[in-house]
Design goal:
- This protein is an alpha/beta fold and about 425 residues long.
- The chain contains 11 helices and 20 strands.
- The strands form 5 sheets. Strands 4-3-5-6-7-8-9-13 form an 8-stranded mixed β-sheet.
- It starts with a helix and ends in a 5-residue tail after the last strand.
- The structure holds 5'-O-[hydroxy(phenylacetyl)phosphoryl]adenosine.
């Protein structure tokens, strides 16, 4: 079950030696980027000052806003003619961040994806349906080339037309699907509506957005497969940064390619194993666009114990984003906490929308929740008790009063790509 056993199991001094060498190389590569020339000079650091991985702590952070200022090609460390592809981040506000790849980068990236897919038990005998957007989003081409490199038969179905996606799974005998967890739930819903089953499917690879253990249970039972969490971001090639193994207990982060740290997002202080904070990554193999101490904004922690699979360091499932955190009447709320509560209540479905308003100077959170299709009797009016029960459970979890509105099955928006379930209407309108 290994694609690159040596790298996947490299630990201790051997790993640190490789990381230190690659860190030095990354800093020398970054020295070709005007932004980093300036930042490194201000920090009094150069590639010559890097001797061990501890030296990373003396390097400056890079933020998402820094990358935006470099739009479009300001962070490329190689001549334009060596860039063979670009992707962009999927941010919804302002200009996206453009990321570039050399031939070598694409090779490394495909190798990482192949590692991940092999780790969950896929082989060239499998048929892999890649049901994500194939454009500038890294999930499409990223997984495509990794799955091909591994030797699977790839069905590049992209997104859209869910019935057709289901037909393809059934007609081609697809054994593994890759999509966002939200879209997987929608597929489950349409499968049930069509009254069919997906007998060939055995492995689902889900990522690109936050999801929960409850959602995993739901997907595994409704689609009869094993669901694995896949994490990454465009700035670090794309998907493939960290991935679950068959233990389904934390995601292995590939330390030969990424040097991870967890910091307190407020103070920048480094945190230890088991402490929750923001994931910061320094790339160790990226040629076209090296990034030093990149603040991902994603909240997680390093897991303390070793994994029985023999691979290295794991991070916990992403718990939220430092910038996704809602502050409602002074209380911090992550959308994932809401989802966790809702998915635990059998009478409600798996679709919800959160609206935040400011009414008479007070923050108000309204949550629209779809009823569970199989339990819905057609009447919403007799559901006041349930509505109250949901509000009470949310209150227990969030210490916050919310307004819950139950809506009919199928009435909330479905998302084929990343879901956008929170609408913050304070300030703007
Ligand atoms: O979402 C890359 C990707 C594609 C990952 C396909 C997995 C599967 P971006 O569009 O740049 O890249 O968005 C990156 O998405 O910083 C996280 O906030 C979030 N994210 C990605 N994977 C997960 C996950 C791709 N498994 C941003 N759990 C990241 C929670 C995730 N959040």
């Amino acid at each position: 079950m290994f694609w690159d056993k040596e790298m996947e199991t490299l630990r201790g001094e051997d790993l640190e030696r490789l990381q230190a060498k690659q860190l030095k190389w990354t800093v020398s590569q970054a020295e070709k980027v005007p932004f980093y020339q300036e930042r490194l000079r201000a920090a009094g650091m150069s590639a010559d000052d890097i001797h061990t991985i501890e030296d990373v702590k003396r390097l400056p952070f890079t933020k998402k806003t820094d990358l935006r200022e470099g739009y479009p090609f300001g962070f490329f460390a190689v001549p334009r003619r060596e860039i063979v592809r670009i992707h962009t981040t999927s941010g919804t506000t302002g200009k996206p961040t453009v990321v570039g790849y050399t031939r070598h980068d694409l090779k490394m990236w495909a190798g990482l994806i192949a590692r991940n897919l092999t780790m969950v038990g896929l082989t060239p005998d499998d048929i892999f349906q890649n049901a994500v957007n194939y454009g500038l989003f890294t999930g499409g081409l990223g997984f495509h080339y990794g799955a091909e490199l591994m030797g699977m038969m790839v069905v590049p179905s992209a997104t859209g037309n869910t019935k057709r996606q289901i037909e393809m799974i059934r007609d081609f005998g697809v054994t593994s699907i890759h999509c966002t967890p939200g879209y997987a739930l929608h597929i489950a819903e349409v499968v049930e509506e069509m009254g069919v089953t997906l007998d060939s499917l055995k492995i689902g690879v889900f990522g690109a957005e936050a999801w929960s253990e409850t959602m995993r249970n739901e997907l595994e039972s409704r689609l009869s497969l094993k669901a694995y969490d896949s994490y990454g971001m465009s700035e670090m090639y794309g998907p493939g940064v960290a991935f679950e193994c068959q233990e389904q207990n934390g995601l292995h982060i590939w330390e030969d390619c990424y040097l991870p740290e967890i910091i307190d997002p407020k103070t920048g202080e480094t945190l230890g194993l088991g402490e929750k904070g923001e994931l910061v990554i320094t790339s160790l193999s990226k040629e076209a666009m090296p990034l030093i101490r990149y603040r991902t904004g994603d909240i997680t922690m390093f897991l303390e114990d070793d994994c029985p699979c023999g691979r290295g360091l794991r991070i916990a499932r992403i718990m939220g984003r430092s910038d996704d955190m809602l502050v409602i009447r002074g209380i911090n709320v992550f959308p994932s906490q809401i989802e966790h509560v809702l998915l635990g209540i059998p009478e409600v479905g798996d679709q919800y929308m959160v609206y935040v308003d400011r009414i008479n100077h007070l923050d108000e959170m309204t949550i629209d929740v779809e009823m569970n299709r199989s339990l819905f009797s057609g009447e919403l009016c007799d559901l006041v008790g349930l509505q109250k029960q949901i509000a009470r459970q949310l209150h227990d979890a969030l210490s916050l009063r919310t307004t819950v509105r139950l809506v009919e099955p199928g009435s909330l928006p479905r998302f084929e790509g990343k879901a956008k379930r929170v609408v913050d209407r304070r300030g703007g309108l």
